[in-house]
Amino acid sequence: MPTHFIPRLLLLLSGLGLLAFGVVLSIHSNLGTSPISSVPYSFSYIFPLSVGTLTVLMHIVMILLQMLILKSKFQWVQWLQLPVGILFGAFIDALMWLTQGWSIELYALQLLTCLASCLITAIGVSLVIQAGLIFLAAEGLYQAIAVRFKLDFGNCKTYGDIILVSIAVIASGLVLHEIVGVREGTIITALLVGTLVKRILPKLSFMQFKAQS
Question: Does the pTM exceed 0.70?
Answer without folding.
Answer: yes
